Amino acid sequence: MSFLDKVWYKKLGVLNAPVILPLLPLSAVFSLITKIRRERYKSHRKFSLRVKPIVIVVGGIAVGGTGKTPLCISLLQRLSDLGYTVGLLSRGYKGKSKEYPLVVTTASNVEETGDEPLLIKLSVKEKATVVVDPNRERGAQYLEKLGVDVIVTDDGLQHYALERDIEIIVIDAQRMLGNGFLLPAGPLREGEWRLNSADIVVTNGNPAEPRKNYQSMHLVPSPAVSIESFCSNQGYHDYLQKGTNVVALAGIGNPTRFYNTLKSCGYNIVSTIDIGDHGVVSKQILINNSKKYPIVMTAKDAVKYAKYKLDNLYVLNVEAVLSERFYQIVADKLYDLTSKE
């Protein structure tokens, strides 16, 4: 268990109180700043851009991985199947391009796009246009010019400069809201009250205390396949046998969830490579570890290492599975919004 897991994702107690209590004044300041910022947008003292396409924000109120990207992929695929022309907007965290907006293709450079936008494009292929722009308003306007009907933003719940029509908040069913405090004493960007203002709250997994209006999502893993098979879209082959001893690599916000998934799939984890969310390890580290055991990584990590053409690297991909009720709620809201035009 990481330090943050012990501090942020445990109720206030004897062990974490010495760390949390001194940070509470900073959390109060953070809360005040975010409240003032929200009120300025709400009162129109700060400009918020409205674009013609319907904007669906998929975001969170807690830092770290909650499963937003798999949900975005599933949502884009379903909306495309329903006949909408859809686009995905991302700020492309840690990506650096010379020009923006940047349209992502399956052959794009991950150093330019960032890992999540490239993964999404590899997953949805031609079903959606994926655009990266640190300036979300400019990116949304670009997608509007391309003629999309619906824009899905990967994260950006707190980016109030872009108006949204539907808000979907994703929370981890095991971690939930942690200790309930705002940054830096806790993991929250906004308080629990924010869940009540969202159109849909999705829990990644089944929460210990289910709420009637929450929709559950489950990340269903596929068998681990070679990184070449996964990233080249050649089809899933070269499977890694269950019972194999592996090194687990996870550059995501909640690596423990990935490790547990690997174990549930029948793989034996002999060691882990923890690099933090969106982190990158050197090619030499991959070479050294892959000589001993197969390295199994997340799909988000795979797009960063496929270029090395190394053997003994595998990917455990997951797909978001949600109830038809979830998709019906989204479809109904889209219908209501389009019928008003």
UniProtKB/TrEMBL annotation:
<dbReference type="InterPro" id="IPR027417">
    <property type="entry name" value="P-loop_NTPase"/>
</dbReference>
<dbReference type="GO" id="GO:0009244">
    <property type="term" value="P:lipopolysaccharide core region biosynthetic process"/>
</dbReference>
<comment type="similarity">
    <text>Belongs to the LpxK family.</text>
</comment>
<keyword id="KW-0808">Transferase</keyword>
<keyword id="KW-0472">Membrane</keyword>
<keyword id="KW-0443">Lipid metabolism</keyword>
<dbReference type="Pfam" id="PF02606">
    <property type="entry name" value="LpxK"/>
</dbReference>
<protein>
    <recommendedName>
        <fullName>Tetraacyldisaccharide 4'-kinase</fullName>
        <ecNumber>2.7.1.130</ecNumber>
    </recommendedName>
</protein>
<keyword id="KW-0418">Kinase</keyword>
<dbReference type="GO" id="GO:0005524">
    <property type="term" value="F:ATP binding"/>
</dbReference>
<comment type="function">
    <text>Transfers the gamma-phosphate of ATP to the 4'-position of a tetraacyldisaccharide 1-phosphate intermediate (termed DS-1-P) to form tetraacyldisaccharide 1,4'-bis-phosphate (lipid IVA).</text>
</comment>
<keyword id="KW-0067">ATP-binding</keyword>
<dbReference type="GO" id="GO:0005886">
    <property type="term" value="C:plasma membrane"/>
</dbReference>
<keyword id="KW-0441">Lipid A biosynthesis</keyword>
<feature type="binding site">
    <location>
        <begin position="62"/>
        <end position="69"/>
    </location>
    <ligand>
        <name>ATP</name>
    </ligand>
</feature>
<dbReference type="GO" id="GO:0009029">
    <property type="term" value="F:lipid-A 4'-kinase activity"/>
</dbReference>
<keyword id="KW-0444">Lipid biosynthesis</keyword>
<keyword id="KW-0812">Transmembrane</keyword>
<keyword id="KW-0547">Nucleotide-binding</keyword>
<feature type="transmembrane region" description="Helical">
    <location>
        <begin position="12"/>
        <end position="33"/>
    </location>
</feature>
<keyword id="KW-1133">Transmembrane helix</keyword>
<feature type="transmembrane region" description="Helical">
    <location>
        <begin position="54"/>
        <end position="76"/>
    </location>
</feature>
<dbReference type="GO" id="GO:0009245">
    <property type="term" value="P:lipid A biosynthetic process"/>
</dbReference>
<dbReference type="InterPro" id="IPR003758">
    <property type="entry name" value="LpxK"/>
</dbReference>
<comment type="pathway">
    <text>Glycolipid biosynthesis; lipid IV(A) biosynthesis; lipid IV(A) from (3R)-3-hydroxytetradecanoyl-[acyl-carrier-protein] and UDP-N-acetyl-alpha-D-glucosamine: step 6/6.</text>
</comment>
